[in-house]
User: What shape does this take?
Amino acid sequence: MIALFHSDHRSHPAHPPGTQKTALSVNVNKVALLRNTRNLDIPSVLRAAELCLQAGAQGITVHPRPDERHIRADDVYELAALMKDWPHCEFNIEGNPLQNLMHFVRDLSARGLPLHQCTFVPDTEDQFTSDHGWNLAHDAELLQPHIDYAHARGVRVSLFMDPVPEAMEAAKAVGADRVELYTESYARAWSGAEKNKVLSQFAQTARAAVAINLGVNAGHDLNRDNLAEFLRAVPGVLEVSIGHALVADALELGYDATVKGYLNCINEAFAPATTV
Assistant: This one.
């Protein structure tokens, strides 16, 4: 069974390992990045999202930055309209709520367009890519009103967080429904001697979140090589958001085969262990 999403941000308990498969949300930012090198709307961000959903992806993610270096405001609204045709799939917008994120929450709500999840990411405006999670000892007071604003519009909130078990209580206390574990450290360590140590840190963090009914997402530099091992080791991951590697694979394999390949990685992670 492929995991489906629900629109109510209050109805997402973290699943026990082995009872529900992790959902795949495809981040289409890099499609937009390529498109923006010309004025021809090629490749189409909307078509890319549609093909990924047709192939079995359970969600679409975008991260519109203030400089519109990839995803543009029009993309957000067009993708949200597309998601109305996919009621069992989710639309997730990432970004810094202190920059341009919250006006999308306001506008989509006002237009009656779907938005299921906001992932709050502590990016600066000129940051190359997301590279750290929130420090809630300093950031909680800033985030609280934005979390409340999203909740008032029926939108689930996930906080982009480093794998620090002790930080999960603070994420829960500020009102987050989920955390998205920033997985670049795992991707860097995957082929080296530190992999098991790093994986253990993620597993401990996920267990700490699950123990207080805080949902767990994960993302950043996950790919077909490292995804299944991560999901086997880290309990309760409800969703992975994958963009860079997935779009790179799609350049060679096409969207359909690529999405199905990532879904196979998820299936592999949840397959029963075999004995010899």
